Amino acid sequence: CSSVLLGGSFVFGTSMRELYESILLVIVTRPFDVGDRIDIGDGHIVVTKIQLLSTEAVNSYNEVIVLRNSILYQKAELKNLRRSKEAVLEIAVHLMPADASPANIKNLEGFVRDYLSDRADKWHTQLLSFPMVSKGVVHIQEHVEHRFRIKHR
Does the predicted model carry a pTM greater than 0.70? Predict the structure, then answer.
């Protein structure tokens, strides 16, 4: 009888651990909900369905990903970007040197400000705009990088 129990623990031990970790993640910890954008270390995904043993999500390529909840439970870092209040987003825009005139940069800033104003419920209207300057060796630039830093609500 004890040998059957011992053999069963080897056969079902991993499954029981995965079930336990899945229950802890989905019911107790609840690090995300359907619709949340999370970072699992391999990129950002949007959660579309949460089940007891697995979670479905969509990545930036619109691919459906099925993740085992026990694996998510074991992740050292799981970032919920929706729950992260006032997260900062930095956008890099690459321009051809001929297109990087002060007038064009001002027009681009105006476009970003209008975008933020139209979505004031999701974004702070405060905008930080700055050019990236490369230090060190002087070389011919293939592009000019300009960055915008905005804050999510």
Answer: no
